[in-house]
Specification:
The protein starts with a helix and ends with a helix. Helix 15 packs parallel to helix 22. The protein has three domains: 189 residues, Alpha-Beta Plaits (2-Layer Sandwich); 77 residues; 268 residues, no CATH class. The strands form three sheets. It has a five-stranded antiparallel sheet, sandwiched between helices. The protein has a four-stranded parallel sheet with strand order 7-6-8-9. It is built from 32 helices and 13 strands. It is α/β, with parallel strands linked by helices. Strand 12, helix 31 and strand 13 form a beta-alpha-beta unit.
Length: 662
């Protein structure tokens, strides 16, 4: 550690073999990590300098010093942002990763101690011996080696007196190891906390502790500020008032409530977050176990809106979670469990007669826009707002809703008689595009726009024979209607297999959330349809533009300055970079707001709970309003509507940019 510090390393992070084992199978981890023996450890070293030349000098100095170190593998440095972020994500995710594999009903304990750097190696070996002595076989050690600061993590059950006693003895021996043997400190970068409060006097001595008590009494005579967190007369405080962590649903039982997911949740500023939703589920289970029916009923009612209704189920929390927990899966399950038999039967009926439902929605949209023209632009907003007072789940009309798009272009496609394998695609126009694919001020709807873009590149387009009524199944799956969702999923795969010539031609989608759904249908398909599914290729419009059209297409003119909103599905499919590349190919300047995130629309949430989208888009909209752009683009109609409402600008499909510039 000392030579690395002397070489100018800004950060030196330690990970022992046990901690590496918790992440060694993650995609992207160096393969040799799996081969390390039990006494090995890894160091994550970062150098920072103001310029490239100084950075290279630092790295050269490191290699000079490293030649004298006992390394099991040659150091590999990277300046790639994605690789760097990945390594740091692995390092920061060690704590939750261990928590994820704990035995159900146990608690994760994280402690923060420090030793003089010169004693770190010996101290870590002694701590590992304590793990073995007290049967903490899953204990891991990691930390900031440059500063002698390490964290250790163990999992502990507090369900029996013997388990509590085991933990008590272990902690007391850790205190003795740190304070008496190595003259370290029980806290390095975090607050004392209740777990170490009983040992503050042991570390600082009686005289210093009495001074602390007097200062505390003067500053906080009524003990209102964090009582017992630093000054605690109970010498057994570390084993008192223990938090319960009951098992709830398998989708989220791995959660240790680290909070890494919270910053990315669209409902974080209005109701709850993934972490809080899980905490509430655990609180409900505890109330149920203790027979506290009154509080259980009250919290259950509150959770319906705060936890279930305002969850966008976008799944971005899984990307932020070190152990990939998708709280949206839990919410879908809870929605499913709340449906009555009648509700499920209605959903199946709607799925089986979706063509008629689609036509009815088109009529309603046409009638609504006509009413707005005759009686005023806010007529439908006021009307649906009035209905919502009596029908809580009544969707609200927004200023972004327009008349349904024309479908005359289908007849022109039907006249095509021959197709070329390399120059043909199947266009699966989403149901949202068929019903709401018009854009204010545009002569072409989104479907005509995609056809136009294909025509300019001499690409033939085929559409499913059962054009009306087709659906990727997302409409039903997001609401927990499993049977209806399975029906539509199998139906569309059969149709696409037939129209694609048995997988001969790729299937292109115009809404990214539908693409993501289509790419993740395998688990609900019949055995016959799985074979068909595996034989087909599905392309989001972004994939299609980037991989097929952009390399061959010519740019007639470039847009000036545009702004993008990469939707959640692009993030989950990991193709947001493709969207940006396409935009930069057709525009001089491209901006992606720093506060870009889930808009909260989630298909219909914005129509049902507009306060959710207003909150979710607030920061991003503030950024966008400060700029002056010639175009505003995204890849999902409903998300474009949410951003248009939030910013006052007109967001539209990226297809319009390509159509104008090619």
């Amino acid at each position: 550690i000392v030579p690395l510090t002397e070489s100018g390393a800004a950060m030196v992070e330690l990970m022992d073999r046990a901690s590496l084992r918790s992440v060694e199978n993650k995609e992207g981890i160096m393969p040799f990590i799996c081969t390390l023996d039990e006494n090995a450890a890894a160091l994550l070293v970062e150098f920072q300098e103001e310029n490239e030349e100084a950075l290279l000098d630092r790295i050269s100095a490191f290699f000079e010093k490293s030649s004298g170190l006992s390394l099991l593998a040659m150091p590999v440095f990277t300046q790639n942002d994605k690789e760097r972020d990945f390594y740091w994500k692995v390092r920061k995710g060690l704590f939750p990763s261990v928590g994820a594999v704990r035995t159900r009903g146990t608690t994760v304990i994280l402690e923060d101690i420090a030793f003089p750097v010169r004693h770190m190696g010996a101290a870590i070996l002694d701590l590992q011996q304590l793990f073995k002595k007290h049967r903490y076989s899953d204990g891991i050690i990691f930390g900031h080696a440059k500063d002698g600061n390490i964290h250790f993590v163990i999992t502990q059950s507090f369900n029996t007196p013997s388990e509590v006693a085991r933990y008590d003895v272990f902690i007391r021996e850790v205190v003795e190891l740190v304070i008496c043997k190595y003259h370290g400190t029980l806290k390095a970068e975090h607050g004392t906390g209740r777990n170490m409060a009983p040992f503050v006097e042991t570390e600082w001595g009686g005289e210093a502790y009495q001074i602390m008590k007097r200062v505390k009494a003067l500053a906080d005579p009524h003990a209102l500020l964090n009582p017992g967190v630093i000054i605690n007369e109970n010498k057994n405080a570390h084993i008192a008032d223990l938090k319960e962590l009951p098992g709830v649903e398998e989708e989220v039982d791995k959660c240790i409530e680290c909070g890494y997911c919270e910053h990315i949740c669209p409902s974080r500023d209005i109701t709850t977050t993934p972490r809080r939703r899980i905490i509430i589920r655990r609180a409900l289970q505890t109330m149920k176990n203790k027979g506290n029916s009154a509080d259980y009923k009250l919290l259950s009612r509150q959770f319906q809106y705060d936890g279930i209704e305002t969850c966008a189920v976008d799944g971005l929390c899984a990307g932020a979670c070190p152990v990939d927990i998708n709280t949206g899966d839990l919410i879908k399950r809870l929605r499913k469990e709340s449906h009555s038999i009648a509700a499920n039967n209605i959903a199946v009926f709607v799925a089986r007669h979706f063509s008629a439902v689609e036509k009815m929605v088109r009529v309603l949209l046409k009638t609504g826009t006509l009413a707005n023209k005759i009686a005023g632009k806010k007529t439908m907003s006021r009307f649906t707002g009035l209905l919502k007072r009596f029908i809580p789940l009544m969707p609200l009309w927004t200023s972004q809703i327009s008349a349904p798009p024309s479908l005359k272009w289908i007849k022109q496609l039907e006249k095509q008689e021959s197709y070329t394998a390399g120059k043909t695609v199947v266009y699966f126009a989403s149901c949202i595009s068929r019903m709401m694919g018009s854009y204010e001020g545009r002569s072409k709807n989104i479907m005509e726009c995609l056809i136009s873009v294909c025509g300019k590149s001499d690409i033939s387009v085929i559409v499913p024979k059962r054009f009306h009524g087709s659906c990727c199944s997302q409409l039903f799956s997001s609401k927990g209607y499993k049977e209806a969702s399975r029906y539509k999923a199998n139906e569309i795969i059969g149709e696409l297999w037939e129209i694609s010539g048995g997988g001969k031609w790729p299937v292109v989608m115009d809404v990214s959330s539908c693409t993501f759904t289509l790419k993740n249908l395998r688990g609900v398909l019949s055995d016959e349809n799985i074979i068909k599914y595996d034989g087909m290729k599905f392309l989001d419009s972004v994939d299609f533009l980037h991989d097929v059209l952009m390399p061959a297409g010519k740019v007639k003119q470039k847009a000036d300055r545009i702004v993008l909103h990469p939707v959640c599905s692009l993030e989950k499919m990991k193709i947001s970079a493709k969207l940006e590349a396409v935009a930069r190919h057709y525009a001089h300047e491209v901006s992606i707001p720093k506060n870009t995130g889930c808009c909260g629309m989630a298909g219909d949430r914005g129509f049902l709970f507009p306060e959710l989208t207003a909150s979710a888009t607030h920061a991003e909209a503030g950024e966008v309003k400060q700029g002056n752009y010639s175009g505003y683009y995204s890849t999902t109609k409903t998300c474009e509507m949410a951003l248009s409402d939030a910013t006052g600008a007109s967001y539209e499909s990226i297809l319009y940019l390509i159509d104008e510039c090619s």
